[in-house]
Amino acid sequence: MKESIRTAGKLIRIGLAAGRSTPGDRLRWWGLFGAAAAVAFVTLATVATVATYHGRETRADARGPVITDSKDAALLYREGADSVGTRPVSVVFVHPLTPEAPVPAGVTRWPEPGEVLLSPELVRTGGGEGIQTRYGTFAGTITTDGLVTPSERIAYVRVAHTPPKDDPRWMHVSVFGSGGGATGEMADQRPVNSPVLALWALTGLPALALTVVAARVGSRTRDRRSSLLQALGGTWRHRMIVNIGEAAIPATLGTLAALLPYAVASVRDIRLSPTGYILDHRDVWAAWPTAAASAAVSLLAVLSIVVGTHRIHRDGTSTRPASFTSRVPAWRLLVCGVGVALVLTSQYVPRRAQLVVFTCGTVVMWAFLSSVVALLTRHLGAWLADNGKRRGHAGRMIGGRWTHAHPGVIVRLALAMVIGIGIVAQMQVWTSRLGEQSHAAVATHQRIKDTVIELATSSMTASQTDRLRSSLPAGSVLLTRTFHDPGPSRDPWVTIAGSCRDLRTLRVACRGDTRTAAGSSAQVEEMGRWYGNLRFTQVPRITVKPDGTQSLLVVTPAPGQLAAVKQAAYTLPNPAVQVEALGGNWLGSSGSRLPNWIQLFGVTGILFILVAGAVSAAAEFVRIRHALAPLSVLTGHRRVFRSVTSWHLTVPLLISTVVAGAVTAWHSVFFIALVQEGSVSWTILAAGIAACAAVSLAVGFLGARAAAREADQWRPAAD
What we know:
This protein is α+β, with helices and mostly antiparallel strands. The chain contains 23 helices and 16 strands.
């Protein structure tokens, strides 16, 4: 036992010394440091995500309304919706029935009639739209105990008048707490696996790619050391201890560095740009034990990758290293095929599992696609070497032989470009997933702005609508919209009713039941696009039926008056449930906020990929400048440097770019067909391919330049 411990100690010291003396040691040290920090960062982000979901659910349970029958009710409760800009706002109307009416978490007491409590974020973002007077008199803010997140926008409005007894939209509440309904942001919360999958697909995969690249920097010396240990009788455990000793210090320091942003997020709220979401520090703080354990697991994962990427033959027939620089393992090609199979079969699994299967297949495919490229370039290298030999082209022959002998070099360089193109394409496709209705809403807003406003309200008498009209901006038109559904035998239609003066303002005739005619206003044309079969009719006074088939429409003479209309509608005796511009609910839908999260994860992943590409290229420059330097003596000119690097680096990388572009195009089109929304921007894809092609040319040029500079200082030396 003592002898084993003593041997392990010596091997660890060998590994520590090797980390300070091998070629490119500083490059590998910082590469492993950055890789460990990246993997730990993604792991801790996953912990924070799960902890945030748990905290959101806990706070949502504390404020959920428990619906009961009218006998046990102490409070009338009604939910509505609003928006500040394009951000949704949850509006809760209440009317206490007893002095002891229950209050939700975050509220100490109900305000007086006609007063309102607002969340701090709503006060901050809605100041320019008059949010403090929109629903009534501002009476204070909701504490963080009653918010699922500090960035939530929610308002509690105590109505000034007793609600009508016959309005079914008012619910009877007995208490707030566990078992209550979901309110606010929790009403449309996605499951936790959605952000976790997006995080690991767009950020985790690049972090793992960076780890593989960093682990293989200067791999030739380490592979020789591993074969020497085997020849001396060392087992895989001995080689593992040496490799761990070499990588332990930078990997540990990188993991500890990733804990710093987590520590900051656990003591103060952090706003995540560009989403605007505020991460609650209480949730992050509560998950510290899990975070510490996860950081240790991420460190072990990095060290496992370091050990796993330095392997030798185990059959005892050779001491030559069996690393990825000598051949492309067949299992990598098989795993890439499995990823493609998962992508293809995702359309046949149940609907809920389609996106999960597709994402898993995507991660596997992109992770091992570079191995397929390496196999192609290896065969290409053999052909180039034979061709160069027959034609007497030294640079082509040398470059082809290097490509055939070292496909792993191409894999590491191509990995960054392949995954980078995939991430950019996925970011673009996900950003385009707004759906047909959201695109239509954007187009409507561009044409008429917010001059057509919908008011979803309960029954209203003529005197009540007259009161509303008097509160609207001067020159506004007040109409009713009625939906008619005659049944399956006939198509439904919508009737717009208003006074003759209002209809004439919209350039619509007042006589009888008029269909949409040419020459009507732009607002009427947009109504036709949204409502379909549209008819206009004249009525002397506006009323709203209580059956839910009718709503109000306000057409303002100029844009920018939506806030004034909202204030008039929300301060009615029985306030409107929702007030929004035509198509506004699609502008502020949760789907339209998804691109912000995709951008956050994708940009972070691209940063990791850029670091991986830089480390890989720098490592190759270190290797190639020493190997190519003697060629200037043997050939008598420096053109051989450009020739060798072009055939060894530039040409294989260009092939990798073409393959990655073709696979990305197929993958993006398949994804759009799967989710049935979105579009492919061929311009963005072409720009990404062009950028990678430029990088391929730059890598060859810089490699030749590094070799030329080294040749000026090269002197023969004994091996």
